[in-house]
Amino acid sequence: METTAKTLEAAREAALDRLGVGADEAEFDVVEEPKPGLFGRTRGQARIRARVRPTPVRPKQERRRRTKGDKSRSRDKAPAAKASGEKTPGDETSGNGADDGDAAEHAAPATAKRSGTSNNSSRGGRRGTSNNKQQESTMNDQERPESPVSPQEVGDAAVSFMNDLVTAFGSAGTAELTVDGTELDVQVRGEDLGLLVGPGGRTLNAVQDLVRVAAQRRLGDHETRLRIDVAGYRERRSAALAKFAADVAQQVRDSGTARSLEPMTSADRKVIHDALNEQDGVESTSSGEDPYRRVIVQPT
């Protein structure tokens, strides 16, 4: 998008207002500067082109893969555990499905894996691997326990948490809940809520994770999808990204050449893809691995 004003600073401020983001979340290109005139006056206006700066993603931590040596050591430890009366996670002869301390989401896959491999375990083979995966998927869907709480109860817990958090931050605001089936949308509206958003929405993402722990996991819910927005930040960012995608689509159509965007988070990439799906003459794909995964826009 482009804005004009008497000075470059005023043009930048106008662009930030229209994009709905902070100065550290936008990129600027100076298209035209005001020219100096007689007696210290200026001629013409400043014109800049502004766009939303894609949010950088945090690199994923690599998990250490279990080697064959680890598996053999765990099997060596199993007899000692049985002798003392303790159950081991890999004990296929145990009468119960999983240890009492295991998470609920791990119980079904563990049961399916034992049923698919118990006949082959004595031979040390893994002939039923593909069938096991199919059984695990089916049993996950069939044996997943129903949520002990309703979506409304989860949403009310999220609203209570956010209201307390706003008060703790010394801000004035209230949280409102919208329930659409299993989709929960909590909007926090008020004044001086910038601290809850943070640069690039990173604080807001962390707050959303906290609310999910406090409202969903604490109550044992595993069905709802909870989304937190503060002061309409996500709506403004989505609108700005959609406008940016439309500008990129026009540039690709005009030039006839593909364009690679900056690395983005998965949420930002989704907004870009959705916006480009509504544009004629272009298509989009994602390329690379996080945190450097990016959107490629090319003509059709």
Descriptive overview:
This protein has helices at 8-19, 68-83, 104-121, 129-143, 151-168, 194-197, 202-217, 233-255, 266-277; strands at residues 2-5, 26-32, 35-36, 42-43, 46-52, 172-180, 183-191, 225-230, 259-260, 282-287, 294-299. The chain is an alpha+beta fold and 300 residues long. It has a three-stranded antiparallel sheet. It has a three-stranded mixed sheet with strand order 6-7-8, with helices on both faces. The chain has a three-stranded antiparallel sheet with strand order 9-11-10. The two termini are 24 Å apart. Among the domains are: 2-52, no CATH class; 151-231, GMP Synthetase, Chain A, domain 3; 236-299, 2-Layer Sandwich (Ribosomal Protein S8, Chain: A, domain 1). The longest helix has 23 residues, at 233-255. Helix content is 45%, strand content 20%. The radius of gyration is 27 Å and the shape is flat. The chain is built from nine helices and eleven strands.
Compact overview of the structure:
With 300 residues, this protein is an alpha+beta fold. Among the domains are: 2-52, no CATH class; 151-231, K homology (KH) domain (GMP Synthetase, Chain A, domain 3, 2-Layer Sandwich); 236-299, R3H-like domain (Ribosomal Protein S8, Chain: A, domain 1).
